[in-house]
Every structure is written in C-alpha cells, then in structure tokens.
Design goal:
about 325 residues, alpha+beta, Arc Repressor Mutant, subunit A, Beta-Lactamase, Enolase-like, domain 1, 3 domains, 5-stranded antiparallel beta sheet, about 45% helix, about 20% strand, elongated
C-alpha cells in the first residue's frame, strides 16, 4: 500500500504521461495543480516509487514514466468511469436513435462509433444466439421449391436460412407451415430447438416444417462468435515500433483469439487488462478495456477497445460503459 503522498504523486505522474507522452520530471510535476510539495520531496518520492516498481527512468537525468504496475494502481484508484463530454454524448445519442436494421450492420457501425469516441481500435463480439429466445417466425416462398426461413430473436438478431424442398409447394402450405413453426418455437430458447415438431396431419406441410428445422440446426452447428473490428488503422498511429503494429494487427485478424481475450478479461472480474495481464505477448505494450452488453438481463456479447498502455483510461471506461448500455437496450427493443 502506498501512503497518501506517494499515491497522489503517482497518480499525477500517470495522468501527466498520458497527456504528454513525455517522461515526467520533478520540477514540472511540482508546478502541476494539486501537487503541493517541493521538487526535492517529489524527487525522493519518485525514487521510492521507482524502487517499488511503479515507475521507470528511460535514461539517466530523464523524468519517470509509469510501469505496468503504475498503470494498474492508477486504474484501480479511479472512483468510476469519467463522464463523456457533451459532444460525445450527443454523438452516442444520435447514433442509437438511427441504429436499426440487420444486427451485423449495427454491430459493425457500433465498432466504428466506439473507435471514433476513443481514437483506439474497437472490437464488438456479436451475440451468441443459442441463449436468445425466438420472437417471431416467418416463411417466405421464393420459388416453387425454395423457401426462406426468417427467425427474429430476443437479442435483436435475425436468422435467415434458405431451404430447398423436394417437391413444389404453394403459398397456402407455406403459410400453414409458418404458423405451425411459430406455435412451436416462439418463446423458446433457440438452443432448445432440437426436437421435431408434432405432426400437423398434412404430409406436405410437415415436410416443409421438418426441412426448415433441419436447415436451422445445420447452420447453427457451424455458427461461431462474430467479431467486428473498427478503427484497426488507428493501431498504426498508436505505436512507434513497426514490429508492435504488425503483431497487433495480426492478432486482430485471429477471431478466436480476440473473443477468448475479451471473455477471459471479464471472467477474471476485470474491466481493464494492462500489458502482460492480457496473457498475450503481442499485447505487452497494450491495454484492453472491456464490458459486456446485456439483453433482457442476459449477457449477449462483449465490446472493448485496444490501445497503448498510455491511454486515457477514464475516458475509455466511460465510452465502453455508455456504448455497451445503449447497445444492449437497442437490441432488446428490437
């Protein structure tokens, strides 16, 4: 534990370094508002913080920069996410006021919104639909032997499957099959849609129903988490080393790794993972800020941002918290 003076000086150094990206010296820090001790005292405390692993000195006679331990102390000492500025709040409000349509498009645009708010790379993991309930079921006759199955889920997703039949059918049979499917599926959890529906008594209608269910089950077997990345190009501006930029961009292309990373951070009870806390070597100089988004009280997916350890954590936490709440609400409203 740090005493109050060391803690105050450390927070001031981290905040200054985040603002300027320059090593912080004792003389400059003494002039900062809220630091009311002499430069000599600050130097002594900075030396102590360096010995304890909170600060590092890039080279002799330079100021100090935060270490991973220093950033962790700073993040843990934040009372709550800082508020978004008025223009950012307006940007979020306007975005979700017009956010409608296909869920994939909405999540893509949400990743770009979050990237714009933070100036970092944003990641949105789409809902895993197996936990969602069915809101509505429709069948649309596209051709004499081709039917489109449309299922609207409680998390806002729309499942579409094209089903090929073995014989010609008409609108009346398709409507009957749709009504039968709706009666058996609406209100049920999608993952429980495995058992065959009771027969209607009409062989043609039953054929449409069973073929539609088979197509839905087959497509779900191949389903994996969808990942939407916004502002990947911002990674190039965040780091000086080309090797770091290349490593981070390559990692962002690995969908399973990204999903596992965000889930792992949340499962450890964290909202921020810094450097080695991510468990991934390419992210040794990065920080990840994450939050789940919930639909009808259930965790539907995850959003996060990825940037350098020298990020504005208060703003990043505020942006992620605000966008996750609005996204969950929008999906719940359908």
């Amino acid at each position: 534990m740090l005493d109050d003076r060391k803690a105050s000086i450390l927070r001031a150094i981290v905040a200054e370094y985040i603002d300027t990206a320059q090593p912080v010296g004792s003389g400059h820090l003494a002039r900062r508002a809220g630091v009311e001790v002499s430069p000599a005292t600050i130097r002594n405390e900075m030396a102590a913080l360096e010995r304890e692993g909170y600060l590092a000195q890039p080279h002799t006679s330079a100021g100090r920069v935060p270490t991973e331990k220093g950033y962790r102390f700073f993040v843990d000492s934040l009372d709550a996410p800082g508020p978004l500025g008025p223009s950012q709040r307006q940007q979020v409000k306007q975005f979700f006021a017009r956010a409608h349509g296909e869920i994939e498009q909405m999540l893509t645009e949400t990743s770009h919104l979050l990237s714009d708010l933070t100036d970092h790379t944003a990641v949105v993991v789409g809902p895993h639909h197996d936990r969602a309930t069915v809101r509505s079921v429709q069948l649309v006759l596209l051709a004499s032997r081709v039917v489109l199955l449309v299922i609207v889920l409680s998390d806002g997703a729309v499942e579409k499957r094209t089903v090929e039949l073995r014989a010609d059918v008409g609108e009346e049979r398709v409507a009957a099959a749709a009504a039968h499917l709706a009666g058996g599926l609406v209100g049920r959890v999608l993952s429980a849609v495995n058992d065959p529906s009771p027969a209607t008594g009409d062989p043609v209608t039953d054929e449409i129903v069973s073929t539609a269910l088979m197509g839905l089950r087959d497509s779900r077997d191949d389903e994996s988490d969808q990942v939407f990345v916004g502002g990947a190009a911002r990674t190039a501006r965040a780091f000086d080393a080309v090797k770091t930029v290349r490593s981070v961009l390559e990692l962002l292309e690995q969908q399973l790794v990204v999903v596992s990373l965000l889930h792992d951070v949340l499962d450890r009870g964290l909202s921020v993972a810094i450097g080695t806390e991510t468990g991934l070597e390419p992210l040794a100089e990065c920080a990840v800020v994450v939050a789940p988004y919930n639909v009808e009280g259930e965790r539907a997916g995850t959003i996060g941002i990825l940037g350098p350890t020298r990020m504005n954590y208060s703003q990043a936490l505020a942006a992620v918290a605000t966008v996750s709440q609005r996204l969950g609400k929008t999906l719940a409203e359908g």
